[in-house]
Design a protein that fits this description.
The complex is a heterodimer of chains A (255) and B (667).
Chain A: E1 4-13, E2 22-32, E3 37-41, H1 48-55, E4 63-68, E5 71-72, H2 78-88, E6 89-92, H3 104-114, H4 119-132, H5 148-160, E7 166-170, H6 178-193, E8 197-201, H7 205-208, E9 213-218, E10 221-227, H8 233-249
Parallel strand pairs in A: 3-8, 3-9, 6-7, 7-8
Antiparallel strand pairs in A: 1-2, 1-4, 4-5, 9-10
Helix pairs in contact in A: 3-5, 5-6
Chain B: H1 4-15, H2 17-40, H3 49-84, H4 86-94, H5 99-139, H6 152-179, H7 182-186, H8 200-219, H9 223-258, H10 260-263, H11 266-277, H12 279-317, E1 322-328, H13 338-351, E2 358-374, E3 377-379, E4 389-396, H14 397-404, E5 414-418, E6 426-430, E7 437-444, E8 462-467, H15 469-481, E9 489-496, H16 504-511, E10 524-529, H17 530-583, H18 588-626, H19 633-666
Parallel strand pairs in B: 3-6, 4-8, 5-7
Antiparallel strand pairs in B: 1-9, 1-10, 2-3, 2-4, 2-9, 5-8, 6-7
Helix pairs in contact in B: 1-5, 2-3, 2-5, 2-6, 2-17, 3-6, 3-17, 5-6, 8-9, 8-18, 9-11, 9-12, 9-18, 11-18, 12-17, 12-18, 12-19, 17-18, 17-19, 18-19
Classes of the chains: A alpha/beta (255), B alpha+beta (667).
Chain lengths: 255, 667
Amino acid sequence: MPMLEVQELKKVYAPRFGGSPVQALNGVTFHLEEGEFAAVMGESGSGKTTLLNILAALGQPTAGRVRLDGRDLAQVRERDLAAFRRDKLGFIFQEFNLLDTFSLRDNILLPLVLAGTRVGELEPRLQPLARALGLEELLDKFPYEVSGGQKQRAAVARALITRPRLVLADEPTGALDSRSADQLLRLLRSFNDQGQTIVMVTHSLQAASHARRVLFIKDGAIFRDLRRGDLAEGRFYAAIAQVLTVLQTGGEDRG
Amino acid sequence: MGELYPRLALQNIRRGRQFYLPYLLTVLATCAAFYLVLALNRQSLWPDKARYAYLSAFMTIGSLVIALFAAVFLTYTGRFLSKRRQRELGLYNILGMGKGHIALILGYEALFLAVAGIGGGLLAGMVLQGVFTALLSALMGMPPIFSPAPSPAGAVATAGLFAAILLGNLVLDLARLKLQKPVELLRESAVGEREPRTRWLLALAGLATLGGGYAIAVTAPSAADALVLYFPAVLLVILGTYCLFTAGSVAVLKLLKKNRRFYYQTTHFIGLSGMLYRMKRNAVGLANICVLCTMVLVMTSGTLTLYLGSEELIPKRYPGEVTVCVVYDPAAERPLDQAELDRRFALCAQRWGYPDARELDQTACAALWLTEVGEGVFQDGDPAPGLSRFYFYLMPYETYERRTGLPLPHDGAAHIYREGGWPWETLTLDFGGDDLACFPVGQPLEAIPDVISALLYVGSNDCYVALPEEALAQLSQLRAESGRGPLSLTRSAYWDLGGDPGDYATVLRAFYGENWTGLGQYDRLFFQDRESFAQEYYALNSGFFFLGVFLGSLFLLATALILYYKQLVEGYEDQARYHILRAVGMDRATIRRSVNGQLLVVFFAPLLVSGVHLVFHFPLVRRLLTLFGVYDLWLELACALGALGLFLLLYAGMYRLTARAYARIVG
């Protein structure tokens, strides 16, 4: 059984004051196995963010189904949703979304504290992650005292500390310079190598080329599903670029 | 194009109504309050000149306080409002609007707010004026006065003052605008405040000042000391409050944060770090609220006690409807014939239509300022520096017994009441002549006899001495021989005439026209009526009470506004934070709990501290109230608790309103 099943997902936004409804997703279907690292690419307005919000249970689809480990997200009760998100999902945002009232340590521990974890368990969970992400020296600093890359690494630690089934990353490199972006992507890749399942929405070719699989979305539907397989990094990069070109020139290629 | 700016200005106000409406209401309320005080201060409104004098003094104080308060508070809120708008103004600038145009918009906004605020305030003041005049006259025990005529002078003064304040605000805004660069205007103020250090020195200073204030309050030995030390004590406590809130709150929060078991709990985690994050600003805000709360409570409870307690004083000072006072020398050659005076007064009363007039009681008392020059030795004369002076009330045994109902041994000794006791075995009076008067000291007096018929007196360093009647004559002789003149003994006889007390003031004036010769030697004869005294007294106390409640309400409004703005701003700051928290898996119920926890602290920490202030203030104000003849502990307690109860009710209402506004923003 695949870990994440997305079936015929549709989302229609009805404008509040008249006007015609906007079809954001128009029948998206794909499966994700445990341990995959998938990038979702597409132009602005193609429905990437809508898709991610639905995967995160932050939005409801108009039609279709999302199952995580066989459990239908629509069946999770409203009051269990927060706990469900906390336990099953990890989030990485473009703008880091760290809380400026907390030190990096407390920002990372936040989901655990929200889940009511015992105090004694906090540090043992934090330490290995901090080491892996090179944050050990920075734990007592506040977000405004560190660089963008360091902030995003702290955000990654926050996403991973609950040992989520699935990490959802929304343009994680969007606000980073290329060096920090590269470093972050390598880190994500190494977590993926250790078995972490990741879905990453991105604009960036460079970011997408670190994934094992790229889903291209156009006009609310999957346009192409590209797998790296045994391709070398350079070849995969070229393949992605090619699909993007087709996507942008409006070709009807359906491979 | 010409209409663009007024329209933009109106639009801005409407869009920011969450901020502008409370500001407008504040302008309106302070404006109305100022106008009301000026209108009530009009001489033409009040019939009686004597009563008017107190009222005028109170209203003048009131208008000064309100003017000062309005200037400080409106500038504070105005600055707060403009700070919040920097981004918006920066955006205008970047979109190509010159600073001149922005200034024009700001000018129109200020104009609209001023017209609405001042106009509305004056209107509200004129509407309320009738109610307040009637209320105040009723409080003073007069027939209610209804005065619909507005006061043009008051309106002009009010409009002038508030226009000046608002214009000042505008000028400040424009000056700030001129200095700013657009990019800076745009930049968000998201740079974090550094986590504050615990400042032990400040905490220590706070403890010292607060302790000092409290110590004064508890130990001030007498009413006079309480009066002199009252404002220093208040100042110390205010200082201490600011220091302690600034340093103490950080220390407490840090201590809590260090306790990992406490800190890493869902509800504490969010609130604690949030409070620590903006503690510096928070602390000053909380201290402001605390000081304002305390002021409201102190003013209302104190003036209420005074108002209710004044009932009690009147029969004490004036046991009869009419007091017949005669000042005479007990050692005179042809001394005053007291029985004849009583007989003549009864006859006089009969002639004026009071056949049932009867004498209830009489007292005699002589008062002297004396300087302590040795152990139990007191000298009459100009005081030398460094020596304490005492006010001596000398009275015959009978007067003490009559006024207190307690028996005294008629053994020729001086029985004395003095605060702190009489440590010596004798009382020696030195009038500067060759001979001294020396009395053995008997038992301490158990009660203070009511022998003074003054409106207000400072009861510190008072000595009450009961002596044999003959001794007073001997003292008078001794004093006369030493060249300082004889003793002036005041004999007061208390009468009920059995008529309408409202007439007595007129009737007694007519009594002076009667023949009062042939009674022996005396200096002065005069009549007092209780009703006039009572009215004057009510005028004083109800003026006080009115002012207390009036200013109290104004300060309460300020408290409400500070709290509201504080939570509103924090709400907008926290909006993004709670958004993130929801994204990482915090559910609404937990958010609500955490918000409520934070709000409860913000609201009730200052209140708790003001409660402590009040407890320490209580003994101090008790002593002050004795100046006005109020000694009733239960009344004082009831008034303090009553004021606290009412305040809590209003405060809880404010809490609900503010909490709702905050929850709407972050929810």
